[in-house]
Amino acid sequence: MQIFVYVAAKDFSGEYRTRRRCRLAVWLCLLAVMVCGAPLHSQEQARPLSANGTDPTEARSRFDANIGRIDLLSAGYIFEISAGGDLAFSRRGSVGVSAPLVYADFPSGTTTEIGDITFNALASVIQKPQASTFRSLAIGADFVLENGDVEAGTGFGQNIIAPYLAASFYPGEGFMLAPLIKDFISLEEDESGRSIHDLSLRLLTVFSFESGFWLNLTPELIVDLNGDQKNLYTLRATFGKMINKNVGFAGDVIYQIAGEKRYDYLARLNMRYLFQ
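and the corresponding structure tokens:
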């Protein structure tokens, strides 16, 4: 559902685009080195995987299905059903893909089509023993392949790369803190000359219980580096339950606390299957 959250617009000078592409090239080269090198460390003693799949730094095989709805500031809403999976080729590296079926209902009409396709890659570059408070550091990226229609509300209307850096800390039993920084960068402008460059700063705060329930409270700051929109402060609240060691269900809502609102309401239901 984040595809519809990060919306910005600005015309770029040639110099700005050159700097942006250079930074993008550095991210891609670094990620390629990390992911390709991940299997070389696979013989090291791997740390245990999280019980509910909430650690953003772990490479694991999983399947996710989501149903979400977003009500826009203007009239209309977007309903999305998505499915995707990750394949871990070692405890340090994984790749994945997800695709949504999007139904957009606007006063001008309705549209149902496959939205933008997202590919992802992750490399866990540092892993510490289970007894350590600092547990791991990972670098990764999402690659959004344009497929939907920005005017119809079913996609970005442009290709996006979103490199990120994440760490995980376990200061207590069943308690995880995971700071994450992610940079959403357009590779080109859409048909209207709009581009995206948003910086996301998040802190995942996860409480996991022996009963299989978990609670995730994630404050987030979204900064439009184009300068077209004011900063947005949000809080994502997720409540979930693992019914066994593989299958879990969760629901989450994103609250816009302060700043320039980008939508009216966003909620999602999730089903996950975690491979051990």
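(Above: one complete record from the training split.) The first helix runs from residue 14 to 37.
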